[in-house]
Design brief:
The protein has eleven helices and eight strands. It has 403 residues and is an alpha+beta fold. It folds into three domains: 181 residues, Orthogonal Bundle (Arp2/3 complex 21 kDa subunit ARPC3), CATH 1.10.1760; 98 residues, no CATH class; 77 residues, no CATH class.
Length: 403
């Protein structure tokens, strides 16, 4: 009799293992398909795009359904096989390891969080989202007072150039919020290339629909002359108003000191092609957006979701007709915490190993926090969407797995 019971128990364990492996393999296949074919770049308030990926939804289920080991295996295999199916840049083995670690962390956190009181989890999340909102509002006020961006949503057309920000930094006119945004963007440059010549755009002066650029030749150890030109219009000395000239000369004296002249003639021929780039201003606007409306958006949306959950819980307590929403709260907490941990590790890994086309480490000499805050913002937005989808499917899958 005992042998028969042991045989039945062994058979059930084998069936359970087969079921877990089969379901995990299905989720792995879905994750790879989504990773390869369903990654989107979403415009971010007119600045650089934000990558939105949904494959994390499918690597999450093995972790919360079957535990850390299944989460680690599916997460790591998804990163590896996804790269083999559709290579995207240089393969970095460390990111495969962190993908596996992320799956394990989700599993471990779920084992702990699912036993916690949902009300306490909601309170902790409410405090976190309130702090995020407050930090975003503080950044907004400081950045506006610094004159970096007085628009509610920063735009590359209305933020200072690299030269202007460096001057503000040298004269201690930047708050810590503006300094973070500047640190994120300072590895890029506003430039104008004409044939073999290359210039830094020191400032932009607008007159109606015409933009004038004050240029400094790159590579000069000692600045003696700046060029006031308008590449989008054939402007000569006679075509530039006195008001524009005075503004350019005032800027030159304030930033570069006395003795630097301003020439109103192009230092190149009309037949040469001109290539203008505002990489610094675009990245500065992106940094400002993430620090201000980005954090405010995350904080407001997080508090709004928790408020809706509280109203649903109140209605359920009143009439018992609404389903339990605690799974969403707990899944959101697990995915957010795991996402921030892995994003932090990945940012550090990329700073140590990410190599550019010239063979140099792209992020090696960069400051950690500005790069980290932008990546965390993207992670929080994407994770919040994923948490909603995961929680919607979790209850159904859990009942099916038990059967």
């Amino acid at each position: 009799m005992l042998k028969k019971e042991n045989a039945v128990s062994r058979t059930e364990r084998q069936r359970g293992l087969t079921r877990r492996l089969t379901v995990s393999a299905i989720f792995l296949a879905l994750a790879i398909i989504v990773k390869v074919f369903a990654t989107f770049m979403v415009p971010l308030f007119g600045a650089n795009g934000m990558k939105i990926e949904f494959w994390g939804i499918f690597t999450t289920f093995p972790a919360i359904l079957f535990g850390p080991l299944y989460g680690a295996v599916v997460g790591g295999l998804c990163d590896l096989l996804g790269y083999l199916v559709k290579p995207d840049g240089v393969y970095i083995p460390w990111l495969t390891l962190t993908a596996a670690l992320g799956g394990a962390i989700k599993g471990w956190l779920w084992l702990w969080v699912k036993k916690c009181d949902a009300v306490k989890v909601k309170r902790v999340l409410a405090v976190i989202f309130a702090l995020v909102l407050a930090f975003g509002v503080l950044n907004h006020l400081l950045i506006a007072s610094d004159g970096v961006s007085k628009k509610f949503v920063a735009s590359a057309d209305f933020v200072p150039t690299e030269t202007e920000m460096e001057h503000k930094d040298e004269t201690d006119e930047l708050s810590f919020s503006s300094a973070i945004a500047h640190s994120f963007a300072e590895y890029y440059s506003d430039s104008l290339n004409v044939g073999e010549m290359s210039f830094d755009v020191c400032t932009v002066i607008k007159s109606g629909e015409t933009s004038f650029y004050l240029l400094k030749a790159k590579g000069e150890d000692e600045v003696k002359e700046l060029y006031l030109v308008s590449p989008d219009a054939d402007k000569t000395v006679e075509g530039i108003s006195e008001e524009i000239k005075v503004e350019a000369e005032t800027f030159t004296t304030r930033v570069f000191g006395e003795g630097v002249s301003v020439s109103c003639s192009k230092p190149w021929g009309d037949e040469e092609s001109e290539k203008l780039s505002f990489s610094y201003r675009s990245n500065l606007a992106l940094g400002v957006i993430c620090l201000t409306v980005g954090l405010e958006f995350v904080g407001v949306m997080g508090l709004a979701v928790l408020l809706v959950l509280a109203l649903i819980a109140y209605k359920k307590k009143k009439d018992g007709s609404v389903r339990n929403t605690s799974d969403f709260t707990k899944i959101l907490a697990v995915l957010l915490l795991a996402g921030v941990i892995i994003t932090t590790i990945n940012t550090k890994v990329l700073m140590e190993v990410l190599v550019g086309a010239n063979g140099n480490l792209i992020w090696k000499d960069r400051i950690f926090f500005p790069r980290w805050i932008v990546r965390v913002f993207e992670e929080v937005v994407a994770t919040s969407v994923q948490a909603y989808i995961v929680s919607a499917l979790y209850g159904v899958l859990k009942r099916q797995i038990k059967r």
